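Sample entry was shown:
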Amino acid sequence: MNATLLDIVALMLGLIHFGVPLAYYFYMKKKYLNKPWNIRVDENYRPKVSIILPTYNESRIIQARLDNIRGQDYPKSLMEVIVVDSNSSDGTAELVEESASRHRDIELRLIREGERRGKAHALNHGLKHATGEIVVIADADAMWPREALSETMKWFADPGVGAVSCLKKPVGSGVNSVEEGYREYYNVLRIAESKAHATPVFHGELGAFRRSLLEKLNGFPTDIGADDSHTATRIALMGYRAITPENILVEEIVPERGYFWWRVRRAQHLIQHFAKTLWMMKQAPREFKWVLAVEAFLHLVNPFLLLASITLLVASIATAQSTLALAITTLGVVLLVVKPYRTWIAQQLHLIIATFRNLKNKEIVWDKQVKS
């Protein structure tokens, strides 16, 4: 293949790589972001809620997290908290028991697992004990605003809504411009996709599901890491809305140490989710099918178009000293000073590495990361 042809193919792949997500983002933003929800919302809707909180060595923050849940402006008589501790070695379970004995105004139960088998196993264990109409899954290190539960439950007044999640705001010493840019881009898409019909990406910091639908699905999937997103997507495939409203914002602590591999692990889980969803796409409602198809393309295929484009440009420079290839490559490096571009390239790198890591280890159970 001569230099001119290498350059043309590289350019085409690059244009597809950047063009598809940009077109999707601006189309979704223009058509759906400011569109009405078409969901019957009741501010006073108050079903019984079961909050399942998986823990593993959370002694540093568990008291604050339980206090955060107790501080919700939701009737305590309609809340039950089920802590599923996966064999912590730092006294987390004992602190939960102590909290339950001191605060009897809310139902708090502790379930001890003999071994750590992953988050989804813990969620399914807790689900067996849940009695609420709505099951809310939560992370130990994600603090909710006081109105989070009330804001979430009002959407379930509409029987067509099957699942509700949150937007995320990165906080902590590990926050950087890449993470902030990533969240700005993805939060817009989550809302727009939700207004179209449903979003295929949910967040474990706050994910709410109708218990009846979870039971139909036999709980959360234990063979992939994105148990939250995959469960919400399967609910959307059943014809229900799986949404992320704009007014439910949860703070997520970003790790300062191990940030790169933290992002790679999350990318691994989303890749697992979309790969497993591919064969289900035919049964998706029309409004959701194309959203799911584009997101699957962006996570599974698009990163490798960039990799192929770069590889061809480098080959053209090395074999034929192509001036055009050198100019394009130089421009790509210079553009890294621009935050949105730098954010996008970082995300593509995470996805590429995550794809290869999945061949070795799905990271269903991962090492605990200390966040500050």
User: Anything to note?
Assistant: The chain has two domains: 3-26+295-358, 49-275. The mean pLDDT is 92. Residues 3-26+295-358 form one domain.
